[in-house]
Each structure stands twice: as structure tokens, then as C-alpha cells.
Amino acid sequence: MSEPDPHALARAFDTLAADREAARAMGVAAHSLALDLGLSWQHVIEELTR
Questions:
Q1: Of 1, 2, 22, 47, which cross-links 12 as Cys (Cβ 3.0–4.6 Å)?
Q2: What distance in Å separates the CA atoms of residue 50 and residue 44, rounded to the nearest whole number?
């Protein structure tokens, strides 16, 4: 998480860029969470068209 300002966001990106393993782990965790929550473009389309 980052404060909602450009400098804090840039620092957060720099931190992830410097630690590729942490970035990979966060990506894997986010992907897993998205799957657990049933998030997909198909789901979005179904919700928008019902």
C-alpha cells in the first residue's frame, strides 16, 4: 500500500523494482486472490449485462 500521492507511489514502485522476488510474490498472491474472488472479464461482462 502507498499513500495517495505521486511521490509515495513512485517510492513503492522503486521498492518493488529493487526486489523482484517480492514483486513476484505479490503478483502471485494477487492472482490467487482474484481467482478466489471469481474476478474475471467474463464475470464483469456477466454482471454488467444482467
A1: 2
A2: 10
DSSP state of 46: H
pLDDT below 70 — which residues of the chain? none
| Domain total of the chain | 1
Joined grid coordinates for residue 16: 518493488
The helix (H) or strand (E) run that includes residue 9 is helix 6-18
Domain extent at residue 17: 6-48
Contact predicate 32/38, CB 8 Å: no
Question: What is this structure's pTM?
Answer: 0.65
Does any domain span residue 1? Answer: no
